[in-house]
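## Example pair
The file below holds two records. Each record gives the amino-acid sequence first, followed by its C-alpha coordinate line.
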Amino acid sequence: MSERDLSDQEEIHSKVLRAGRRTYFFDVRSTKAGDYYLTITESKKFTHDDGSFHYKKHKIYLYKEDFDAFKENVEEMMDFIINEKGSEVISERHQKDFKKEEAEIEVPVENTSTNTSSFTDVSFEDI
Protein backbone atom coordinates (compact mmCIF):
# COMPACT_ATOMS: atom_id res chain seq x y z
CA MET A 1 0.00 0.00 0.00
CA SER A 2 1.40 3.45 -0.92
CA GLU A 3 2.02 6.27 1.55
CA ARG A 4 -0.87 8.22 -0.01
CA ASP A 5 -3.27 5.29 0.53
CA LEU A 6 -2.24 5.08 4.18
CA SER A 7 -2.86 8.80 4.76
CA ASP A 8 -6.30 8.52 3.14
CA GLN A 9 -7.20 5.66 5.48
CA GLU A 10 -6.29 7.76 8.50
CA GLU A 11 -8.88 10.46 7.71
CA ILE A 12 -11.80 10.24 10.14
CA HIS A 13 -13.80 13.46 9.68
CA SER A 14 -13.42 16.51 7.41
CA LYS A 15 -14.83 19.98 6.93
CA VAL A 16 -14.05 22.52 4.18
CA LEU A 17 -14.19 26.32 4.42
CA ARG A 18 -13.98 28.21 1.13
CA ALA A 19 -12.87 31.82 1.49
CA GLY A 20 -12.17 33.56 -1.82
CA ARG A 21 -8.92 32.25 -3.33
CA ARG A 22 -8.22 30.34 -0.13
CA THR A 23 -9.71 27.06 0.98
CA TYR A 24 -9.24 25.70 4.48
CA PHE A 25 -9.46 21.99 5.18
CA PHE A 26 -10.04 20.75 8.73
CA ASP A 27 -9.32 17.04 8.94
CA VAL A 28 -9.45 14.69 11.91
CA ARG A 29 -6.94 11.92 11.40
CA SER A 30 -5.82 8.89 13.33
CA THR A 31 -2.34 8.12 14.62
CA LYS A 32 -0.83 4.65 14.36
CA ALA A 33 -1.77 4.19 18.02
CA GLY A 34 -5.42 4.96 17.22
CA ASP A 35 -5.59 8.42 18.81
CA TYR A 36 -6.95 11.42 16.91
CA TYR A 37 -5.32 14.71 15.88
CA LEU A 38 -6.33 17.67 13.73
CA THR A 39 -4.74 18.94 10.54
CA ILE A 40 -5.57 22.40 9.24
CA THR A 41 -4.58 22.98 5.62
CA GLU A 42 -4.70 26.31 3.81
CA SER A 43 -4.77 25.95 0.04
CA LYS A 44 -4.41 29.10 -2.06
CA LYS A 45 -4.92 29.26 -5.83
CA PHE A 46 -2.44 31.23 -7.93
CA THR A 47 -3.17 32.04 -11.59
CA HIS A 48 -0.35 32.56 -14.07
CA ASP A 49 -0.42 35.12 -16.90
CA ASP A 50 -1.13 32.33 -19.41
CA GLY A 51 -4.28 31.29 -17.53
CA SER A 52 -2.79 28.19 -15.96
CA PHE A 53 -2.82 27.92 -12.19
CA HIS A 54 -1.28 26.14 -9.24
CA TYR A 55 -2.03 25.77 -5.54
CA LYS A 56 0.20 26.46 -2.56
CA LYS A 57 -0.61 24.53 0.58
CA HIS A 58 0.36 25.08 4.19
CA LYS A 59 -0.48 22.54 6.86
CA ILE A 60 -0.65 22.64 10.67
CA TYR A 61 -0.74 19.47 12.75
CA LEU A 62 -2.51 19.98 16.06
CA TYR A 63 -2.47 17.32 18.76
CA LYS A 64 -4.88 17.01 21.68
CA GLU A 65 -2.36 18.09 24.31
CA ASP A 66 -2.18 21.49 22.56
CA PHE A 67 -5.92 22.03 21.94
CA ASP A 68 -6.69 24.18 25.00
CA ALA A 69 -3.73 26.54 24.59
CA PHE A 70 -4.22 26.78 20.81
CA LYS A 71 -7.93 27.54 21.17
CA GLU A 72 -7.28 30.15 23.89
CA ASN A 73 -4.65 31.90 21.75
CA VAL A 74 -6.78 31.91 18.59
CA GLU A 75 -9.81 33.22 20.50
CA GLU A 76 -7.69 35.91 22.20
CA MET A 77 -6.22 37.08 18.90
CA MET A 78 -9.60 37.12 17.13
CA ASP A 79 -11.20 39.03 20.04
CA PHE A 80 -8.33 41.53 19.96
CA ILE A 81 -8.78 42.14 16.23
CA ILE A 82 -12.57 42.56 16.52
CA ASN A 83 -12.22 44.85 19.56
CA GLU A 84 -9.57 46.99 17.86
CA LYS A 85 -10.90 47.10 14.28
CA GLY A 86 -14.46 45.76 14.37
CA SER A 87 -15.76 42.95 12.20
CA GLU A 88 -16.09 44.93 8.95
CA VAL A 89 -13.48 44.05 6.32
CA ILE A 90 -11.67 47.21 5.20
CA SER A 91 -9.01 45.78 2.90
CA GLU A 92 -8.71 47.03 -0.68
CA ARG A 93 -8.16 43.46 -1.83
CA HIS A 94 -11.49 42.36 -0.35
CA GLN A 95 -13.57 45.38 -1.37
CA LYS A 96 -13.11 46.57 -4.94
CA ASP A 97 -15.08 49.77 -4.23
CA PHE A 98 -12.91 50.67 -1.21
CA LYS A 99 -11.68 54.27 -1.50
CA LYS A 100 -8.60 55.37 0.40
CA GLU A 101 -9.04 58.67 2.23
CA GLU A 102 -7.38 61.60 0.43
CA ALA A 103 -6.01 63.08 3.64
CA GLU A 104 -5.24 60.88 6.58
CA ILE A 105 -5.02 62.48 10.02
CA GLU A 106 -2.14 61.31 12.19
CA VAL A 107 -2.85 61.14 15.88
CA PRO A 108 0.23 61.35 18.14
CA VAL A 109 0.69 58.40 20.46
CA GLU A 110 1.55 59.35 24.02
CA ASN A 111 2.53 55.90 25.25
CA THR A 112 5.11 54.52 22.82
CA SER A 113 4.84 51.03 24.30
CA THR A 114 1.47 50.66 22.54
CA ASN A 115 2.58 52.26 19.27
CA THR A 116 2.15 49.60 16.60
CA SER A 117 3.85 51.65 13.86
CA SER A 118 7.17 50.02 14.72
CA PHE A 119 5.88 46.54 13.85
CA THR A 120 6.91 44.92 10.59
CA ASP A 121 4.26 43.68 8.19
CA VAL A 122 4.64 39.94 7.66
CA SER A 123 3.27 38.01 4.72
CA PHE A 124 2.48 34.45 5.73
CA GLU A 125 2.20 33.55 2.04
CA ASP A 126 6.01 33.31 1.98
CA ILE A 127 6.17 30.75 4.79
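Second record, same layout:
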Amino acid sequence: MSDIRPLRGLRPKPELAPKVASLPYDVMNTEEAREMADGNPYSFLHVIRAEIDFDHDIDPHSDEVYRKGAENLRRMVEEGVLFQDEKPCFYVYQLVMGEHRQRGIVAGASVEEYEKGLIKKHEHTKPDKEDDRTRHINTLNAQTGPVMLAYKARSEIDEFVDSICESRKPEYDFVGPGGVEHTLWPVCDEGLVAKLRELFADVDALYITDGHHRSAAAARVARERRAANPNHTGDEPYNFFLSVIFPHDQLQILGYHRVVKDLNGLSPEEFMAKVAEKFDVEPTDSPEPDAPHRFGMFLDGRWYRLTAKPGTFPEDDPVRSLDVSVLQENLLAPILGITDPRTDKRIDFVGGIRGIGELERRCREDMRLAFALYPTTIEQLMTIADAGAIMPPKSTWFEPKLLSGLVVHTLREGD
Protein backbone atom coordinates (compact mmCIF):
# COMPACT_ATOMS: atom_id res chain seq x y z
CA MET A 1 0.00 0.00 0.00
CA SER A 2 0.97 3.66 -0.29
CA ASP A 3 0.07 5.82 2.71
CA ILE A 4 -0.25 9.39 1.44
CA ARG A 5 -1.48 12.21 3.65
CA PRO A 6 -3.13 15.57 2.98
CA LEU A 7 -1.19 18.63 4.08
CA ARG A 8 -2.07 21.99 5.56
CA GLY A 9 -0.18 23.63 2.77
CA LEU A 10 1.53 26.97 3.15
CA ARG A 11 1.02 28.64 -0.22
CA PRO A 12 0.79 31.98 -2.04
CA LYS A 13 -2.24 34.17 -2.44
CA PRO A 14 -3.60 33.29 -5.88
CA GLU A 15 -2.79 36.67 -7.37
CA LEU A 16 0.82 36.39 -6.19
CA ALA A 17 1.47 32.79 -7.21
CA PRO A 18 3.17 33.69 -10.53
CA LYS A 19 5.57 36.00 -8.67
CA VAL A 20 6.27 33.60 -5.80
CA ALA A 21 6.73 30.28 -7.60
CA SER A 22 10.28 29.59 -8.76
CA LEU A 23 12.31 26.91 -10.44
CA PRO A 24 13.87 24.42 -7.98
CA TYR A 25 17.06 25.36 -6.16
CA ASP A 26 19.27 22.84 -7.93
CA VAL A 27 18.78 23.81 -11.59
CA MET A 28 20.64 27.11 -11.32
CA ASN A 29 23.72 28.71 -9.81
CA THR A 30 23.80 31.73 -7.52
CA GLU A 31 24.17 34.30 -10.27
CA GLU A 32 21.34 32.81 -12.29
CA ALA A 33 19.13 32.81 -9.18
CA ARG A 34 20.00 36.45 -8.50
CA GLU A 35 19.03 37.41 -12.04
CA MET A 36 15.76 35.47 -11.86
CA ALA A 37 14.75 37.16 -8.59
CA ASP A 38 15.93 40.64 -9.54
CA GLY A 39 13.23 43.21 -8.73
CA ASN A 40 10.87 40.57 -7.32
CA PRO A 41 10.72 40.53 -3.50
CA TYR A 42 8.08 37.78 -3.65
CA SER A 43 10.28 35.24 -5.45
CA PHE A 44 10.65 32.00 -3.54
CA LEU A 45 14.32 32.07 -4.52
CA HIS A 46 14.75 34.35 -1.49
CA VAL A 47 13.86 31.28 0.58
CA ILE A 48 15.62 28.47 -1.30
CA ARG A 49 18.64 30.42 -2.60
CA ALA A 50 18.92 33.01 0.16
CA GLU A 51 22.56 33.78 -0.67
CA ILE A 52 21.16 36.13 -3.34
CA ASP A 53 20.17 38.56 -0.55
CA PHE A 54 23.74 39.24 0.54
CA ASP A 55 25.65 42.10 -1.06
CA HIS A 56 28.93 40.18 -0.86
CA ASP A 57 30.16 36.74 -1.82
CA ILE A 58 29.06 34.21 0.76
CA ASP A 59 29.16 30.44 1.06
CA PRO A 60 25.66 29.22 0.07
CA HIS A 61 25.99 26.57 2.78
CA SER A 62 26.84 28.94 5.62
CA ASP A 63 24.64 29.25 8.70
CA GLU A 64 23.85 32.85 7.74
CA VAL A 65 22.31 31.76 4.46
CA TYR A 66 20.08 29.10 6.04
CA ARG A 67 18.95 31.62 8.68
CA LYS A 68 18.24 34.19 6.00
CA GLY A 69 16.07 31.68 4.16
CA ALA A 70 14.09 31.05 7.36
CA GLU A 71 13.78 34.80 7.95
CA ASN A 72 12.49 35.34 4.42
CA LEU A 73 9.93 32.54 4.80
CA ARG A 74 8.65 34.09 8.04
CA ARG A 75 8.48 37.50 6.38
CA MET A 76 6.40 36.17 3.51
CA VAL A 77 3.96 34.66 6.01
CA GLU A 78 3.82 37.80 8.18
CA GLU A 79 3.23 40.02 5.14
CA GLY A 80 0.42 37.81 3.89
CA VAL A 81 2.24 36.70 0.76
CA LEU A 82 1.81 33.10 1.95
CA PHE A 83 -1.12 31.70 3.90
CA GLN A 84 -1.86 28.28 5.37
CA ASP A 85 -4.91 26.21 4.54
CA GLU A 86 -7.19 25.74 7.52
CA LYS A 87 -7.52 22.01 7.12
CA PRO A 88 -5.44 19.29 5.46
CA CYS A 89 -5.75 19.16 1.67
CA PHE A 90 -4.45 17.32 -1.32
CA TYR A 91 -3.69 19.46 -4.38
CA VAL A 92 -3.98 18.44 -8.00
CA TYR A 93 -1.01 19.94 -9.85
CA GLN A 94 -1.07 20.07 -13.64
CA LEU A 95 1.88 21.02 -15.84
CA VAL A 96 1.57 21.66 -19.57
CA MET A 97 4.64 22.10 -21.78
CA GLY A 98 3.79 22.33 -25.46
CA GLU A 99 1.74 19.26 -26.32
CA HIS A 100 2.73 17.45 -23.13
CA ARG A 101 0.44 17.40 -20.07
CA GLN A 102 0.84 15.69 -16.71
CA ARG A 103 -1.41 15.72 -13.64
CA GLY A 104 -0.19 14.75 -10.20
CA ILE A 105 -1.18 14.93 -6.54
CA VAL A 106 0.64 17.14 -4.03
CA ALA A 107 0.72 15.09 -0.83
CA GLY A 108 2.79 13.96 2.10
CA ALA A 109 4.60 10.69 1.30
CA SER A 110 5.46 8.36 4.16
CA VAL A 111 8.97 8.42 5.60
CA GLU A 112 8.31 4.96 7.08
CA GLU A 113 7.52 3.57 3.63
CA TYR A 114 10.67 5.25 2.28
CA GLU A 115 12.72 3.55 4.99
CA LYS A 116 11.10 0.17 4.24
CA GLY A 117 11.85 0.46 0.53
CA LEU A 118 8.22 0.84 -0.53
CA ILE A 119 9.20 4.20 -1.95
CA LYS A 120 11.90 3.05 -4.32
CA LYS A 121 15.19 4.72 -5.20
CA HIS A 122 17.38 4.43 -8.27
CA GLU A 123 20.25 6.78 -7.35
CA HIS A 124 22.89 7.10 -4.66
CA THR A 125 22.92 10.33 -2.68
CA LYS A 126 25.98 12.44 -1.93
CA PRO A 127 26.58 13.18 1.77
CA ASP A 128 27.27 16.89 1.26
CA LYS A 129 24.03 17.42 -0.69
CA GLU A 130 22.06 15.42 1.84
CA ASP A 131 23.60 17.51 4.64
CA ASP A 132 22.59 20.69 2.82
CA ARG A 133 18.92 19.69 2.48
CA THR A 134 18.81 18.43 6.08
CA ARG A 135 20.10 21.75 7.39
CA HIS A 136 17.66 23.63 5.19
CA ILE A 137 14.66 21.64 6.47
CA ASN A 138 15.73 21.93 10.11
CA THR A 139 16.52 25.65 9.96
CA LEU A 140 13.28 26.57 8.17
CA ASN A 141 11.24 23.91 9.98
CA ALA A 142 9.67 23.26 6.61
CA GLN A 143 10.07 21.28 3.40
CA THR A 144 10.17 23.81 0.59
CA GLY A 145 10.89 21.70 -2.50
CA PRO A 146 8.73 18.75 -3.56
CA VAL A 147 10.04 15.31 -4.43
CA MET A 148 8.65 14.00 -7.72
CA LEU A 149 7.26 10.49 -7.35
CA ALA A 150 5.66 8.10 -9.82
CA TYR A 151 3.35 5.13 -9.54
CA LYS A 152 2.34 2.54 -12.12
CA ALA A 153 -0.66 4.21 -13.69
CA ARG A 154 -4.12 3.16 -12.54
CA SER A 155 -7.23 4.16 -14.49
CA GLU A 156 -9.33 4.70 -11.36
CA ILE A 157 -6.88 7.32 -10.06
CA ASP A 158 -6.70 8.99 -13.48
CA GLU A 159 -10.49 9.21 -13.54
CA PHE A 160 -10.63 10.67 -10.03
CA VAL A 161 -8.01 13.32 -10.83
CA ASP A 162 -9.62 14.19 -14.16
CA SER A 163 -12.99 14.62 -12.46
CA ILE A 164 -11.46 17.17 -10.06
CA CYS A 165 -9.93 19.17 -12.91
CA GLU A 166 -13.09 19.11 -15.00
CA SER A 167 -15.60 19.91 -12.26
CA ARG A 168 -14.08 22.93 -10.55
CA LYS A 169 -12.16 26.10 -11.23
CA PRO A 170 -8.44 26.00 -10.42
CA GLU A 171 -7.04 28.30 -7.77
CA TYR A 172 -3.78 28.90 -9.67
CA ASP A 173 -3.38 28.94 -13.43
CA PHE A 174 -0.38 30.79 -14.87
CA VAL A 175 2.51 30.46 -17.28
CA GLY A 176 5.86 30.08 -15.58
CA PRO A 177 9.50 29.90 -16.68
CA GLY A 178 10.06 28.37 -20.09
CA GLY A 179 6.44 28.85 -21.10
CA VAL A 180 5.21 25.97 -18.91
CA GLU A 181 1.62 26.33 -17.70
CA HIS A 182 1.09 25.52 -14.01
CA THR A 183 -2.41 24.86 -12.63
CA LEU A 184 -3.40 23.92 -9.07
CA TRP A 185 -6.69 22.66 -7.61
CA PRO A 186 -6.92 22.32 -3.80
CA VAL A 187 -8.86 19.23 -2.70
CA CYS A 188 -9.95 19.82 0.89
CA ASP A 189 -13.36 18.13 1.07
CA GLU A 190 -13.05 15.34 3.63
CA GLY A 191 -14.90 12.85 1.46
CA LEU A 192 -12.64 13.44 -1.53
CA VAL A 193 -9.54 13.35 0.68
CA ALA A 194 -10.61 10.01 2.10
CA LYS A 195 -11.38 8.64 -1.35
CA LEU A 196 -7.95 9.58 -2.67
CA ARG A 197 -6.20 7.99 0.30
CA GLU A 198 -8.26 4.86 -0.33
CA LEU A 199 -7.28 4.77 -4.00
CA PHE A 200 -3.57 5.06 -3.17
CA ALA A 201 -3.84 2.37 -0.50
CA ASP A 202 -4.00 -0.07 -3.43
CA VAL A 203 -0.78 1.26 -5.00
CA ASP A 204 2.00 -1.21 -4.23
CA ALA A 205 4.96 1.16 -4.52
CA LEU A 206 6.02 4.69 -5.35
CA TYR A 207 9.18 5.54 -7.29
CA ILE A 208 11.43 8.54 -6.75
CA THR A 209 11.95 10.13 -10.14
CA ASP A 210 13.52 13.43 -9.04
CA GLY A 211 14.51 14.44 -5.53
CA HIS A 212 16.65 11.69 -3.99
CA HIS A 213 18.51 14.17 -1.75
CA ARG A 214 15.31 15.88 -0.63
CA SER A 215 13.69 12.58 0.33
CA ALA A 216 16.83 11.30 2.07
CA ALA A 217 17.09 14.55 4.04
CA ALA A 218 13.42 14.38 5.04
CA ALA A 219 13.98 10.86 6.33
CA ARG A 220 17.05 11.95 8.30
CA VAL A 221 15.11 14.83 9.89
CA ALA A 222 12.29 12.43 10.77
CA ARG A 223 14.71 10.00 12.45
CA GLU A 224 16.25 12.82 14.50
CA ARG A 225 12.90 14.18 15.61
CA ARG A 226 11.45 10.73 16.27
CA ALA A 227 14.37 9.96 18.58
CA ALA A 228 13.95 13.27 20.41
CA ASN A 229 10.18 12.96 20.85
CA PRO A 230 9.12 10.69 23.74
CA ASN A 231 5.49 11.14 22.66
CA HIS A 232 6.05 10.18 19.02
CA THR A 233 2.86 8.85 17.40
CA GLY A 234 3.76 8.54 13.71
CA ASP A 235 1.28 11.22 12.67
CA GLU A 236 3.55 14.24 13.26
CA PRO A 237 4.28 16.36 10.17
CA TYR A 238 7.92 15.25 10.11
CA ASN A 239 6.78 11.71 9.29
CA PHE A 240 5.77 12.77 5.77
CA PHE A 241 7.66 14.55 3.03
CA LEU A 242 6.38 16.99 0.42
CA SER A 243 5.79 15.19 -2.87
CA VAL A 244 4.00 15.44 -6.19
CA ILE A 245 2.90 11.98 -7.30
CA PHE A 246 2.29 11.25 -11.01
CA PRO A 247 1.17 8.22 -13.01
CA HIS A 248 4.23 6.85 -14.77
CA ASP A 249 2.75 7.12 -18.25
CA GLN A 250 2.35 10.90 -17.99
CA LEU A 251 5.99 11.66 -17.22
CA GLN A 252 8.41 12.94 -19.83
CA ILE A 253 12.13 12.18 -19.81
CA LEU A 254 14.54 13.96 -22.13
CA GLY A 255 18.08 12.94 -23.01
CA TYR A 256 20.84 13.80 -20.54
CA HIS A 257 23.81 14.73 -22.71
CA ARG A 258 27.58 14.81 -22.10
CA VAL A 259 30.32 17.27 -23.06
CA VAL A 260 34.03 16.45 -22.67
CA LYS A 261 36.98 18.82 -22.45
CA ASP A 262 39.63 16.92 -24.48
CA LEU A 263 40.49 13.77 -26.42
CA ASN A 264 42.69 12.31 -23.65
CA GLY A 265 45.89 13.00 -25.59
CA LEU A 266 44.67 11.37 -28.81
CA SER A 267 44.65 12.96 -32.24
CA PRO A 268 41.19 13.16 -33.88
CA GLU A 269 42.19 10.34 -36.23
CA GLU A 270 43.38 8.10 -33.38
CA PHE A 271 40.24 8.86 -31.39
CA MET A 272 37.88 8.08 -34.28
CA ALA A 273 39.68 4.81 -34.98
CA LYS A 274 39.20 3.69 -31.39
CA VAL A 275 35.53 4.72 -31.42
CA ALA A 276 34.97 2.66 -34.58
CA GLU A 277 36.03 -0.49 -32.74
CA LYS A 278 32.83 -0.47 -30.68
CA PHE A 279 30.49 1.74 -32.71
CA ASP A 280 29.38 2.07 -36.30
CA VAL A 281 30.24 5.67 -37.19
CA GLU A 282 28.75 7.79 -39.97
CA PRO A 283 28.42 11.56 -40.57
CA THR A 284 24.91 12.90 -40.00
CA ASP A 285 22.84 16.03 -40.30
CA SER A 286 20.39 14.65 -37.70
CA PRO A 287 22.25 14.70 -34.37
CA GLU A 288 19.25 13.80 -32.17
CA PRO A 289 19.38 10.02 -31.54
CA ASP A 290 16.27 8.35 -32.91
CA ALA A 291 16.55 4.99 -31.13
CA PRO A 292 18.21 3.35 -28.12
CA HIS A 293 21.94 2.59 -28.42
CA ARG A 294 22.41 5.37 -30.96
CA PHE A 295 24.30 8.52 -30.08
CA GLY A 296 25.02 11.87 -31.65
CA MET A 297 28.69 12.91 -31.40
CA PHE A 298 29.93 16.44 -32.19
CA LEU A 299 33.64 16.85 -32.91
CA ASP A 300 35.50 19.62 -34.74
CA GLY A 301 32.33 21.20 -36.08
CA ARG A 302 30.75 17.98 -37.42
CA TRP A 303 28.05 15.64 -36.16
CA TYR A 304 28.38 11.87 -36.35
CA ARG A 305 25.92 9.09 -35.59
CA LEU A 306 27.33 6.32 -33.40
CA THR A 307 25.51 3.00 -33.22
CA ALA A 308 26.67 0.50 -30.61
CA LYS A 309 27.81 -2.73 -32.26
CA PRO A 310 26.16 -6.02 -31.23
CA GLY A 311 27.93 -7.71 -28.35
CA THR A 312 29.36 -4.48 -26.90
CA PHE A 313 26.89 -4.48 -24.00
CA PRO A 314 24.82 -7.12 -22.14
CA GLU A 315 21.28 -6.74 -23.45
CA ASP A 316 19.77 -8.64 -20.49
CA ASP A 317 21.32 -6.36 -17.84
CA PRO A 318 18.88 -3.50 -17.06
CA VAL A 319 21.65 -1.16 -15.87
CA ARG A 320 24.51 -1.95 -18.25
CA SER A 321 22.19 -1.88 -21.28
CA LEU A 322 21.19 1.74 -20.54
CA ASP A 323 22.58 4.14 -23.13
CA VAL A 324 24.45 6.06 -20.42
CA SER A 325 26.17 2.80 -19.45
CA VAL A 326 26.92 1.78 -23.04
CA LEU A 327 28.60 5.14 -23.69
CA GLN A 328 30.46 5.09 -20.38
CA GLU A 329 31.79 1.52 -20.66
CA ASN A 330 32.67 1.56 -24.36
CA LEU A 331 33.92 5.10 -24.91
CA LEU A 332 34.13 7.52 -22.00
CA ALA A 333 36.14 5.22 -19.72
CA PRO A 334 38.33 3.13 -22.08
CA ILE A 335 39.04 5.80 -24.69
CA LEU A 336 38.75 9.14 -22.88
CA GLY A 337 39.88 7.94 -19.46
CA ILE A 338 36.78 9.20 -17.63
CA THR A 339 36.34 6.39 -15.10
CA ASP A 340 34.20 8.27 -12.57
CA PRO A 341 31.89 10.82 -14.21
CA ARG A 342 30.70 11.94 -10.76
CA THR A 343 34.06 13.47 -9.92
CA ASP A 344 36.00 13.90 -13.18
CA LYS A 345 36.32 17.62 -14.01
CA ARG A 346 36.82 16.87 -17.71
CA ILE A 347 33.15 15.97 -18.22
CA ASP A 348 29.98 18.01 -17.80
CA PHE A 349 26.30 17.26 -18.31
CA VAL A 350 23.66 19.11 -20.30
CA GLY A 351 19.94 18.56 -19.76
CA GLY A 352 17.97 17.78 -22.89
CA ILE A 353 15.77 20.85 -22.49
CA ARG A 354 18.75 23.01 -23.49
CA GLY A 355 18.83 21.43 -26.94
CA ILE A 356 21.47 20.39 -29.45
CA GLY A 357 22.51 24.02 -29.90
CA GLU A 358 23.79 24.10 -26.34
CA LEU A 359 26.11 21.16 -27.06
CA GLU A 360 27.54 22.98 -30.08
CA ARG A 361 27.95 26.17 -28.03
CA ARG A 362 29.85 24.35 -25.29
CA CYS A 363 32.17 22.83 -27.89
CA ARG A 364 32.89 26.29 -29.27
CA GLU A 365 33.55 27.80 -25.85
CA ASP A 366 35.04 25.37 -23.33
CA MET A 367 34.70 21.74 -24.45
CA ARG A 368 36.12 19.60 -27.28
CA LEU A 369 33.37 17.11 -28.04
CA ALA A 370 29.74 16.37 -27.15
CA PHE A 371 27.46 13.35 -27.02
CA ALA A 372 23.68 13.49 -27.45
CA LEU A 373 21.87 10.57 -25.79
CA TYR A 374 18.52 8.93 -26.38
CA PRO A 375 16.27 9.33 -23.31
CA THR A 376 16.08 6.68 -20.63
CA THR A 377 12.48 5.47 -20.30
CA ILE A 378 10.38 5.53 -17.15
CA GLU A 379 9.88 1.77 -17.58
CA GLN A 380 13.66 1.26 -17.45
CA LEU A 381 13.83 3.38 -14.30
CA MET A 382 11.10 1.38 -12.55
CA THR A 383 12.63 -1.97 -13.58
CA ILE A 384 15.96 -0.94 -12.08
CA ALA A 385 14.32 0.39 -8.91
CA ASP A 386 12.27 -2.80 -8.54
CA ALA A 387 15.50 -4.81 -8.73
CA GLY A 388 17.07 -2.69 -5.99
CA ALA A 389 19.75 -1.58 -8.45
CA ILE A 390 21.26 1.85 -9.02
CA MET A 391 21.36 3.82 -12.25
CA PRO A 392 24.54 5.59 -13.39
CA PRO A 393 24.76 9.29 -12.52
CA LYS A 394 22.94 11.77 -14.75
CA SER A 395 20.75 9.16 -16.42
CA THR A 396 17.42 11.03 -16.50
CA TRP A 397 16.30 14.59 -17.15
CA PHE A 398 12.62 15.11 -16.39
CA GLU A 399 10.69 17.98 -17.94
CA PRO A 400 8.77 20.03 -17.10
CA LYS A 401 10.21 20.88 -13.68
CA LEU A 402 8.05 21.24 -10.59
CA LEU A 403 8.02 24.76 -9.19
CA SER A 404 8.99 25.52 -5.60
CA GLY A 405 6.82 27.75 -3.44
CA LEU A 406 3.41 26.66 -4.70
CA VAL A 407 2.89 24.41 -1.66
CA VAL A 408 5.21 24.31 1.38
CA HIS A 409 4.98 21.61 4.05
CA THR A 410 5.66 23.08 7.48
CA LEU A 411 6.85 20.79 10.26
CA ARG A 412 5.24 22.67 13.12
CA GLU A 413 3.26 20.41 15.43
CA GLY A 414 -0.46 20.73 14.69
CA ASP A 415 0.16 21.33 10.98
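Notes on the second record: The radius of gyration is 22 Å. The mean pLDDT is 96.
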